[in-house]
Amino acid sequence: MSKAILITGASRGLGAGLARHFAARGYKLALTARSLDALDTLADTLKEQSPQIVTAVLDVADYASVANVINQCAQQLGGLDIIVANAGVAINTRSGKGQFEQMRKIIDVNLTGAIASAEAAIELFRQQGHGQLVGISSVAAARGLPGNGAYSASKAGFGKYLEALRAETANEKIVITELAPGYIDTDLNSALASRPFLVSAEKGTGIMADLIEREVSFRYVPPWPWTVLAQLLKILPTRILKKL
Predict the structure, then answer these.
(1) Is 151 a catalytic residue?
(2) What's the pTM?
């Protein structure tokens, strides 16, 4: 029997890339995002590969709707084996420049919305008796980066939440996977002047799909060179960090 995976933020970027890989691997798909038209267009390109695809409008910042949408998708697919909390935003923000509303949006989506998705996933998995939650954090969680303080904070906060959740579910048939991408070529980071060690979206999401199937606890993506670079980033002197 085919496994079923739900992906938030599936209309583009990493979410769409993961949908393509899992469709090619024979998974049933539940694709969610704010744009139903974009989801339906993607689903139409994958219908020959996936045994079943459902699409649903989901804004993870509309916290009250998250559990309902996830549960409806689960009912349509006969359960969900994997839920990927991927939906996120990235906005360059500088402190003290009147950008609080943009910062709040980042936290609302990347942290609070991600936790809302995870909480709904865990409730469903406990009802089913099994499941895998995949949380997408970032290399930026390793250190607060200039111009990205709110983004770094949101991803670091979600990572710590996932660590706690892994401990809480240690005696249950629930797997908690955290993936922390470096620079993968998507529209989320395409405007940046510098994207060191950039990999294509196809390659990056392929690595992510492999790691999800392996049920890893935590990995940087791609593991090389980011496993090493993330540790260096943590100890980089501020005088050098401020130039980034």
Answers:
(1) yes
(2) 0.96
